[in-house]
Design goal:
- The complex is a heterodimer of chains A (193) and B (117).
- By secondary structure, chain A is mainly alpha-helical.
- In chain A, α3 packs antiparallel against α4.
- In chain B, a hairpin with a 2-residue loop joins β1 and β2.
- In chain B, α1 packs antiparallel against α2.
- Chains A and B meet through α1, α3 and α6 of A and α1, α2 and α3 of B.
Chain lengths: 193, 117
Amino acid sequence: MSAGAKPIANTRSGTGIPTARLITWWVIASEIVIFGGLLASYVMHRIGHPEWAESASHTNTWAGAFNTFVLLTSSLCAVLAHKAADAHDGPRAARLLRLTALGGLIFLTVKGFEWAADFREGFVLSSGGFWSFYYTLAGLHGLHVLAGMIIMLIIASEAAKNQEMQRVECIGLYWHFVDIVWIFLFPLLYIAR
Amino acid sequence: MTTEAHVQHPNYVKIWAILVVLLVVSVLGSMTHIRDAVLIAAFGVAVIKAYLVAKNFMHVNVEKRWVPYLLVVCLLFIAILLAGVAPDVMKNSGENWNKNPSSQSAPSVAGAATKNE
């Protein structure tokens, strides 16, 4: 190793999985328990409270469907960035990561308008059990989208210089997980009425 | 620095197109207002979509075996949580316990899971 090189322990792993990817899987595993617990609690209460269907009827299915489309498309960009990183094409990977982050921004913007409309109609966190779960689940998911966008833009700036390319796949894994969470939130919050 | 590629990249655009078609199916299914159709369109399609993303975008199927083990253990924790808590949340009574009688007539009351001996 040259004097200027950074000692990144990315290949030492008893599992045979590069360390960066392994730690990403651990993060995802912990997120499964967090979101899984919340979703399980929501499903149990929702079944026990059929009258929540009336509250759910106020959510905007079209906005939810559009956001699902946006996240699916951003996931496509993320996995294409991974493919570009595998081909050692850092600038292309960076462009695709920035497009992915743009998808996240569109998602949050739509969510913002949606929530503003909900607030105007008087539906806030304390409006009832359904709304408590709605804002908690969608809000926590939105925070994950925001965190993913920030990290993605940092990684994109490095990838553009063909540096730290292994991180492109890792942020992609995280983003796909956030997409999967939304895939379940969409029917639970917007379709089941 | 990069790691060597560990996956064969499939046609991602084709998979994305399938996911979008499934999204359309779930939205159209929700418009039928037939309970079973809505549930299948919503949750059956969601499971398929999640599988497609995990398999093709996250490459779980070609990942080292530790990863699926780890994910399955976490999902198992969720199943244990459901099995342990669901009877209290979803049932009004059980052996040697029943919920507050007022909550039985009005199941929307918060704290309905509180037990009475």
